[in-house]
Amino acid sequence: MSTARLRLQHRRYRLPFRGPVRTAHGVWTHREGLLLRVEDTAGRAGWGECAPLPGWTTETVDAAEAALGELGEWAEEAALDRLPLGLACLRGAVAAAREPCVLPPEPSALGVAALLPAGGEAPARMSGFAEAGFRVFKWKVGVGDPADELGLLDELCGRLPPGGRLRLDANGAWERRVAERWLERCAGRPVEFVEQPVAAPPGASARDRARADDLLRGLAGAFPTPLALDESLAGDGDVARWLAEGWSGFFVLKLTLHAAPTATLAALARARARVVFSSALETRVGAAHALRRAWAWPGERHALGFGVWPLFAARALDGPAAAPFLRREDVAALDLEEAWNALA
């Protein structure tokens, strides 16, 4: 869109999940956010999604909606570029809506990690996913008693299909001793990485954030199982900081939360970083833009963290059903205008 004046519309949503999602951040029953429609004076329109994620950032849907209200329905293009830096999700949504959501022609498909529920349901669900062809599985831990969860680890590893790998996601729930205990147990097992074993909460003091970062570095250097950053990457600046420090583990990217994903991904590609593209439990609008960038990623490819669908009760807001491989044509067929109209 090259014109200087743009029409900016938004619709707020509060969408129930098909079933509750349990993580160390609590039990989630719904998702809140905004869908944006940006149109230029020639009538060309694009869609974006602003969906701050509780537990990751201090940005709120209310703050984003208030900022849009101040802009009004018609705004100069330069005004959109001056949105507050603290509203990274909103800035990213506006940027996405102004870019074509078109996938590169290759690859024809990308692998997907199946999302296992927290607790004792995980082994049975893994068996079902394995029969369906999945080979990478992500298990939410840090939800129940560590001893009980550790007792399930061997059972899950034993149920892995040939060549299968397990990802553990603690969502920053562990203290040092618990994290060490888990990493000791993971050594020598088919665990691809342990995601965010510890983390400082949003709004934590600089001192607390520094302590959590120091602990992450120490754990990464003391155990052979790779670690992955997730909550530690609340925004583009966090990615730049960890790159500057030479982080050699994985970067789990929820691109819906980033203000400038193009520049962030370029920096990661230059560093030859290990990147996992992951769902932020957003609608198909934000997911489509994130997957567009996953398709264009020039580096080594790892299974996508998008094995979450069907997620919403409203089918028009969902992405393709979870499968071991996400096909290009399934992503290209996502109708963003249909999602927008579903909120009318």
Structural class by helix and strand composition: alpha/beta
The number of distinct structural domains comes to 2
Helicity range of the residues?
25-40%
Can you count the beta strands?
13
Write out the CATH superfamily name of the largest domain: Enolase-like C-terminal domain
Query: In CATH, what is the class of the largest domain?
Result: Alpha Beta
The CATH architecture designation of the largest domain is: Alpha-Beta Barrel
Q: Please mark out the parts with pLDDT under 50 across 5 or more consecutive residues, or reply none.
A: none
Topology, please?
Blueprint: E1 5-23, E2 26-40, E3 45-50, H1 61-71, E4 74-76, H2 77-81, H3 88-97, E5 109-116, H4 122-131, E6 136-140, H5 146-159, E7 165-169, H6 176-186, E8 191-195, H7 206-222, E9 227-229, H8 236-244, E10 250-253, H9 261-270, E11 274-277, H10 284-296, E12 304-307, E13 325-327, H11 328-332, H12 336-342
